[in-house]
Amino acid sequence: MRSLLSVFILLFVFGFGLSAFAQSTTGKKHVFSFSAMALSSSTKQGGDGPSGSTVLSHSEYVWSGERFGFGAFFQYDMQGTTEKDSVYGPKVEVYLRPFFLELGYALSVKRAYTDRTIAEQTGDGTFYGVGARFNLGAGGTSGWFFQASYKIRTLNIKKQDGTELDEPIQQTDGYPLIGIGYQF
Q1: What keyword terms does UniProt attach to this protein (predicted)?
Q2: CB 145 within 8 A of CB 100
Q3: pTM, whole model, 2 decimals?
Q4: CA dist 6 to 55, 109, 183, Å?
Q5: Where do the structural domains in the chain lie, given as residue ranges?
Q6: Rounded distance, CA 184 to CA 181, Å?
Q7: Angle 123-128-131 (CA atoms, 0-180°, nearest 5)?
Q8: Closest Cα to residue 37, out of 57, 8, 65?
């Protein structure tokens, strides 16, 4: 139900914003960015447990106007050497320069494992966040920029090795990202 509500909100904002965006003729630009987060972790329960590092990368392309942006994102999450997650889908941004609010819908979530009898899990999800972008050059509306953001992501795992789960697994993460990008 929560995932369906998120999809509805995303489509509503996307449709409303796209009509306002199409009417605006100034300030349109393309934004490419890459951000990453790294974390070292160790878990133990009754003896040894998994340990290692997590590296999450977030890449995106946004077609940006004065107040709204629309685009796509891709996340790749390496959790040690035993789990690799990939997530992609559309996103919407609202600008309060230099800050932005964002909402995304993960059309596809895939977790691949190498250390257990489960080979993969699939599903969908959502994320929302807040961030800021600062030009690294002489200013203006094009060139390199620094980006920092905080995202909250909810993944809904619905299938395991191609079989529907009786009860979906829901995972919610909050994480900071820093990175660079280029706008033109």
Answers
A1: Signal
A2: no
A3: 0.80
A4: 26, 16, 28
A5: 2-41+52-183
A6: 10
A7: 140
A8: 57
CB 77 within 8 A of CB 111: no
Pairing relationship of beta strands 68-79 and 51-64 according to DSSP bridges: antiparallel
- How many C-beta neighbours within 10 Å does residue 181 have? 20
Please report which helix (H) or strand (E) contains residue 60, including its range: strand 51-64
Q: What is the pLDDT of residues 27-86, one digit of tens each?
A: 679 999 999 998 765 555 455 545 567 889 999 999 999 999 999 999 999 887 788 999
Domain 2-41+52-183, what fold?
A: Porin (2.40.160)
Q: Determine the residue type at 183.
A: Q
Q: One-letter amino acid identity for 28?
A: K
CB within 8 Å of 91: residues ≥ 6 apart: 60, 62, 70, 71, 72, 73, 102, 103, 104, 105
Q: What is d(CA 101, CA 129) in angstroms, rounded to the nearest whole number?
A: 6
Geometric angle at alpha carbon 106, from 82 and 132, rounded to 5°: 95
For residues 109 and 125, give the distance between their C-alpha atoms in angstroms, rounded to a whole number.
7
Round to the nearest angstrom and report the end-to-end CA distance of the chain: 39
**Contact between residue 54 and residue 39 where contact means Cβ atoms under 8 Å apart:** yes
3-state secondary structure of 98: coil
